[in-house]
Model the fold of this input.
Amino acid sequence: MPVVIQGSASPSLSSKLSKEMGWRLVRPEMRRFPDGEIYLRIAAGLKGQEVVVVQSLSPPQNEHLIELLLLLDLCRDLGAKKVTAVVPYLAYARQDRRFREGEALSIKTVAKVLERADRVLVVEPHSKESFSHFRRAREIRVFTLLGRYLGSLDLKNPLFLSPDEGSLQRVKEAAQAAGVEFDCLWKERLSDTKVKVEWRKPEVGGRDVVVLDDIISTGGTVVEACKLLKGARKILACCVHGLFVGDAVHRMRSAGIKEIFSTDTVESSFSRISVVSAIASHL
Amino acid sequence: MPVVIQGSASPSLSSKLSKEMGWRLVRPEMRRFPDGEIYLRIAAGLKGQEVVVVQSLSPPQNEHLIELLLLLDLCRDLGAKKVTAVVPYLAYARQDRRFREGEALSIKTVAKVLERADRVLVVEPHSKESFSHFRRAREIRVFTLLGRYLGSLDLKNPLFLSPDEGSLQRVKEAAQAAGVEFDCLWKERLSDTKVKVEWRKPEVGGRDVVVLDDIISTGGTVVEACKLLKGARKILACCVHGLFVGDAVHRMRSAGIKEIFSTDTVESSFSRISVVSAIASHL
Done:
């Protein structure tokens, strides 16, 4: 029977996965040396075992990434026969192309170091481009799951809104699962020389509007969206990966957001939706 | 002509190396995204160039390591034909064996990710064990250089002291370069079941004693050593890699250390000795 290894960035999700699958949960002994180096130890025997390491690459991303690499190598050293890395949130996925000459394609570096796993499962990896650098990796889509959750809430004449075209297809999936309308707030088209922004102001009078995106980082996009939604009865923000950097939550609340939801790919007090069933279905 | 790429942990050493070799210095554009991800860009053309990336893995080790990986991959992407990683201080070198079953052999993970470089140069990598996991890597010894520097100081009847057997051979090299006496403060022998510690109290009355080691981290070892050196005229502490974690400097001064010296493998106000000539001789 496979074993679930708990990364320090995903304590809740790894526990849930262990319960869902009926697999043993192993909590590595982890601490820091005085100089900041990570100490890791897995006391359980892993010889010949199949292991699933669950570790989100949420902030601090670099710390969580090095921990994941150490865990993957350690499982291999301890004789695990198949090593799966479950990466609920993939860091550096937005650096998936060179916007200016000479920029680091950081996601490629992340993909390369994760090749030490036999396979990698990533929840909603932001873009096709970011995922194209991975071999032996599968993406786990969860917008349908988000839609079903949002559909279960008591919302009045709801409208799901994608803040840009990049998330439109995914918001559509969520809206269809919830059986509600959806729209796109603005379109951004890049020509060779300029950025053309086309604003849309959907009819939101008296409606409950859910601004839906894959990642909320500083909350800037959500705050901008709010300015176009005057007249809405209630505005909610929902995302898969809730990074909520700095004063993001305060900014969103000040802009008029009544409720904030995210999944447990990045664990926080806003993680009201679990992606555990979606991950389990890929194992 | 090769190019020197400046890592953010080694601004001074990389500049010195560029001057010493007469090679162009390239400073990558580096900043942080709001969520903490590293942004890197190298504006210079590197096509067909030989590049030398200089980046210490001093604390915060994991941040500096990820930056180094991004830089190495970026140089390759930009068409560099030969990529050398100069690692003045190698992190995780003390986790070079499993002291307890199930521990991560972290240095092996570091060695593996650095294989993306064509060759790796490491200054004083702590132990043979730590270095055994590297392929295409060379160690740069600098204790002779330390000895020559210490020998140029105005010291009275100096004695170089190794705090344990692990550094004895290296302290001997320094002492011979300086033309002074050396000794070892204590011996530690591990049997199957116990640790046997044998103390030595060298005659230090009226002498200037230099406690010499490869790494000073919390300063604990140096502070312990001081307790055995009553009667010395002056006690100095000297190391290659001065991490000086937390209140290390304060603790050492309180224990009676009059002067603290380190090299620039870890850059600080104590970096009075440069290893640039030693690195240059390996390029």
About this structure: The CA atoms of residues 5 and 53 of chain B lie 5 Å apart. The mean pLDDT of chain B is 93. Chain B has nine helices and 16 strands. The two ends of chain B are 12 Å apart (CA to CA).
